[in-house]
Amino acid sequence: MKVNQHTALIGRNVILVPYRREHVEKYHAWMADPELRELTASEPLNLEEEHDMQRKWQEDEDKLTFIVLARDSEASSDEDTSKAVLSEADCDPSRMIGDVNLFFKGSPEDEEFEIEAEVMIAESTFRRRGYASEALQLLLSFATSCDSPPMLPVAADKLVVRIGAGNAASVGLFAKLGFTVTKHVAVFDELEMRIVDARRKGEWVKGKIVNFE
């Protein structure tokens, strides 16, 4: 999505940056893992196709994608992110640990319009350490407050996630962010979770928005 092509979000432990050409090689390496492809419902692509996909996602107005970078542990020890600055070292592709996305389905004028949220922490050493939660909160806070019509801001009650019923960790992650199970799709053994109380968005961590060239 063009709205975030020059935007980075700085949190305490992660930085979200737009998905760019320099990230493709590592992202492609992640997608060589059959387990990650299954978890993300992704098809295997060669490197050239992966570059084509990155360019498409950057232009598409129905996808909001950020790459998740792990902050330097010394820098992240300062809780006051309002004073944080973005350095070249912070944005090195070697710090990539995953991605976080919103997929816009339909037109905002449609009654059935919804925005599906997804997060992937591809680097196993960073799982179950709060990185997915922080990345999601930075993204959701940005998307529900950024004034960039027609797609942003989004209404919290239009957010949805779909998770395998057996994926207790992901269900727990989204439940802590205010999502409630609203449907069980038996044929896919999948849970649908939505924001029932829009006031919960006030609990999400907000990132410092900075220009990213």
Defining key terms:
single chain; 213 residues; alpha+beta; nine-stranded mixed β-sheet; 9 strands
Give the SSE layout.
Layout: E1 7-10, E2 14-18, H1 24-30, H2 34-40, H3 47-59, E3 63-70, E4 96-105, E5 114-121, H4 131-143, E6 159-164, H5 168-176, E7 179-185, E8 190-195, E9 208-211
Parallel strand pairs: 5-6
Antiparallel strand pairs: 1-2, 1-9, 2-3, 3-4, 4-5, 6-8, 7-8
User: Quick one: overall form?
Assistant: globular
> Count of DSSP E strands?
9
**Structural class assignment:** alpha+beta
Helix tally equals 5
Largest sheet: 9 strands, mixed
Order of helices and strands: EEHHHEEEHEHEEE
Strand order of the main beta sheet, please?
Answer: 7-8-6-5-4-3-2-1-9
Distance between the terminal alpha carbons, to the nearest Å? 15 Å
Q: What fraction strand?
A: 25-35%
Low-confidence stretches: none
Rg from C-alpha positions?
17 Å
What would the average pLDDT be, to the nearest integer?
92
User: Helical proportion?
Assistant: 10-25%
Description:
- The chain is about 25% helix and about 25% strand.
- The protein is α+β, with helices and mostly antiparallel strands and about 210 residues long.
- It has five helices and nine strands.
- The protein starts with 6 loop residues before the first strand and ends with a strand.
